[in-house]
Amino acid sequence: MTASPPLETRRLAPQTGCALVLRAGQHLRITDPLGEQVSDLVSFSLEDRAEWLSSGRTIDYANTIYLTKGHVLYSNRSRPMWTIVEDTVGRHDFLLTPCSPETFKLIYGATGHHPSCFENLATNLAPLGIAPDAIPTTFNVFMNVDVAPSGELAIRPPRSRPGDYALFRAEMDLVVGVTACSAEMSNNWSFKPIDVEVFAGAPSADAASRGEALAASGAE
Ligand SMILES: [Zn+2]
Fold first, then answer.
1. Mean of pLDDT values over 76-101
2. 9 in Cβ contact with 196 (< 8 Å)
3. DSSP string covering the chain, please?
């Protein structure tokens, strides 16, 4: 078994984000290189950007709020956008919105500018035709939210250790936004980078399926 090299590799500096385009069948690996760092993920259909990643639909169909390996992340039109193919952590959040300038005013009492996932997503996705108001609830990779029986939420340090990752297969052509989260509480009060890699096929796939993925991505 030979590892296929990534098509694209980026290290997101702390409290930043990026935008990407992925084709169906390509894989996105989000790695926490230092540990205890959240990464917000959002996506839109490349074909029609009014189709977006839906927390509500996904939780409906998975029947759990804790999405992990094997789960499908759905769009607002109930079409699969992603499948979680590998997950070395097993705890992510899909309840909470990306941290935003208002988050820091309302929850943290910030007065000046504070970097945020929302701003980083909005800035990076704007050139790809996504308006700020179109950004939905993000899939918050490595974010560790406990839910008490009363319904009260507690944001805990991420369970991710250095090198932990989640691998997602794109199930349609996608416009994608990814961040290294800017919120103190979500990241155990220190901001770290996030590694983002795009692969033509599953990085550990055998030669035959890798060839198919490369052929598919070359056929566009
Ligand atoms: Zn954030």
1. 98
2. yes
3. --PPPPSEEEEEPTT-EEEEEE-TT-EEEEEESSSS--EEEEEEESS-TT-BB-HHHHHHHHTSS---TT-EEEBTTS-EEEEEEEESS---B-SSPPP-HHHHHHTT---S----HHHHHHHHHGGGT--GGG----EEET-EEEE-TTS-EEEEPP---TTEEEEEEESS-EEEEEE----TGGGTT----EEEEEESS-TT--HHHHHHHHHHHHT-
Q: What is the whole-number distance in angstroms between the Cα of residue 58 and the centre of ligand 1?
A: 20
Q: pLDDT tens digits for 11-69?
A: 999 999 999 999 999 999 999 999 999 999 999 999 999 999 999 999 999 999 999 99
What is the rounded distance in angstroms from the CA atom of residue 160 to the CA atom of residue 108? 24
Tell me the CA–centroid distance for residue 29 and ligand 1, in Å: 18
- The answer to whether residue 4 scores a pLDDT higher than 90 is no
Residue 183 CA to ligand 1 center (angstroms) comes to: 5
For residue 129, pLDDT over 70 is answered with: yes
